[in-house]
Every structure is written in structure tokens, then in C-alpha cells.
Amino acid sequence: MKKLKNEAELLKKAILIGESYAVNRGYKNFDPTNSAKEKIESLYRLLVNDKLIHPLAIDNEDQPNMKHKLALWIAKQLPEGHALLK
């Protein structure tokens, strides 16, 4: 897995956009007490369920790989020339 440039910032953006997507899909808002790990796993599973991202292999389903998948997902959603893609 090759780390993306600005992967941490892309992940933050993915969580922000992913939360809005989840709410639009009928998911209740995340509680302020939800950890980032819980949000990442929930968003990853929602996006896999909706077939917006390909699932990881069962033996590779861990936090670093889920974070990377979410960062890749948002990088593909951003317009060309976006500051996070440079």
C-alpha cells in the first residue's frame, strides 16, 4: 500500500463528507463520543455496502487499510487541481 500525499488531510475530508453521506442515507448522526476508529469503520462498511468502494480482503480489514481506502475514495471525488491532490 503506497501512502498518498496528504493522506491524513484526505482522511479528515473523507470522514467529513462520509458523515454527510451517511446522514443523507438515513444513518443517524455520529455522537460526539464516537471515536475516529468507529467512524472510519462505519463509513468504510457503508461505502462497501453501497458499492462505492471495493471491499478489502478479509485478512486485510484493519484500521490502516480502511483509512487508506477512505482517502483513496475521497481523492477520486475531489475535482482535478484541488489543494489536497497537489
Automatic annotation (TrEMBL):
Gene3D superfamilies the UniProt entry points to: Uncharacterised protein PF16691, DUF5062
Q: Which InterPro entries match?
A: DUF5062 (IPR032036), DUF5062_sf (IPR038316)
Please state what the protein is called.
Answer: DUF5062 family protein
